[in-house]
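User: Hi! I'm a student and our assignment asks us to look at how structure tokens line up with a sequence. Could you show me two examples?

Assistant: Happy to help. In each example below, the sequence comes first and the structure tokens follow. Example one:
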Amino acid sequence: MRRPSAVRSHLTAGPARTLLGLGVSAIFVFLFLRDTDFGAVSDAFTSADVELILIAMAVFFGGVWFRAVRWHILLRPIADASPQRLFPIMAVGYAGNNILPLRGGEIVRAHTLYRQFGVRHTAGLANVFVERVLDGVMLTLFLVLGVVAGWVGLGGMAPAGDVLTATMAFLIFGVTVTVVALYVIARHPERAQAIIVRLLRRIPVLRRHDGAWVAGLIDGVRPAGDPALLTAAFFASAAAWGMEALMYFLVGEAFDLDLPLPVYLLVAAAANVIISAPSTSGGVGPFEWAAKEVVLIYLVAAHAQESAIAYAASLHGLVLVPITLVGLAFLWYYHVPVRRLLRGAAPDEEA
């Protein structure tokens, strides 16, 4: 059987996957910029309110802090980790996700968690998955609020359209099923482990594997079976995503878009849902395209497309660049080999 490090390198560094990511980014960048008056885009950039953009950046980091609080809550059953110590590890994960394909930052985050707190990699990754499910809950809520606001014409909003409405329905179903499944697994860990191992042994390459690592996965999702912890984590998620939506709004005000707040909820949902498929590093291309397309549903002004392009590009730059720089600094502090990370070779796991 392949060593874990070899599998990770295959997952994150394959030339075909790198080319796929670049190809997807190129297609979406073309769609994002086609039929554009670049002079009007330049004018939109130069007229933006820099002070509001700086405030938006500070708000974004406040959202990252609440994500660290949420992670602290979810880790309580398996590790005593304060938000202060988890914030740098969150930044490490952001940096990894933004420079590696296939969300390789989650592997680096789990590795750093293991080195700092002794949490098994499988448990760390499973715990991160619970985080992602909570993110899905919040994005679904954003879509519901935005779509309903369009239905009732709040602030003069038009209906969001069939694509966003269908995405909302799909997420409601998918998130509900996933939350229920995690709850059942967490409430019945022994039975869940036995069933998972039995199913895995039907896969030829895993037929002779003892499945011991499955216990780590079950351990990582234990918070999903604790209603009190799950409720606290939900409110921390609401605070984190609320600050991120506020950031989207502030950047929109900086570019004088003058759109109702529910539009920015739709922008946040659409942009983050489209980059949930880990095909490009940092979501470059799909994020900008989705943000622009949602804004153009509602923005009626001269050079609306150019204003939307300037907004989407600035927004993604604020989401990507500052936290990536902070994360790279902590990668250096934690002695994670950045060159190996850039090549897609994550540090070795425990035996």
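Example two works the same way, sequence first and then tokens:
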Amino acid sequence: MKEIFTKTHFTNRIIWILLAWFALYEIVDSILVLYTGSLLRRSVPNQSDGLAFVLEYYTPLIASCLFFVILCLIVKKNRFLLDAIKPARERKNMKMLGIGLLLGFLTNFFCILCALIHGDIKLYLDFSASQIPLMIFALVSVFFQSTSEELWCRCFLYERINVHYPLWVAIVINGSLFGLMHLANPGISALALADLIVCGLSYSLLRWYSGSIWTCFGIHTMWNFTQNFLFGLPNSGLVSEASVFHLDAATGISNWIYSYEFGVEGGVPAVFIDLLLVAVILWCARRDGRLGELLESRESKGDMLVMKKNETPVVEFPEQ
């Protein structure tokens, strides 16, 4: 029987993994999301501006999440990826989701607070109880949008590369690609791109140190929701039509703290808070004696995936 989960097999080399990721995520997945978005907009009559925005940019990403799961079920070699996202594993993932949601709010609020104190933006409250259902729907939709990006970066790239390559390689590659994914967003700048790459690295380290991708689901979801729907600011260049707070149209200054076109992600505070997250995680890992894990692959740790003819791959995850 020939082992196909060996490094020499071409499908396990980084270049093949990247090509597969690009074809599946950037091409096939994007087409599915566009079709789903078009279908949703045609199916929901009398849309408000806020609902139309959510249906266009966030809700369709549920198709991406479903596509990822179906792909893993169909392709035996990727089936082990599902183990990383099972929500009921010792209830740990739900705890990590909560921690991630808190981190997402705190990190984004810090950046917004810097812009407020510096006088770059002025916000006013314009919210009614009638908007609560839309905000709940928006939160769920943002969860699917954020989860989609995490599945393809912090699960597919992260896990597949780490099977035979050191963890730091998986972290650097998926973190960098996470930033580059946003190059087509409106208002992108060199500073915003740098922040998104650092953000991708910090989320990857958080994925490793916490032992749960649900931490990344949480921090990514609440960062986007806080920025776009709580405070009404651009989220990577996308401006929501519905939010609890609204940006005063006469304000909004682009400088080193805040980008009028891109949002707080285009400012130095965002880079600082993401670098701080990286530093804290690495410090905690050093304290716990875990830095050596960054040099290991699953193969080197004895967690090598082996799949022979007519067999399903099995991987045992070490206790975190």
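Here is something you could point out in your write-up. The radius of gyration is 20 Å.
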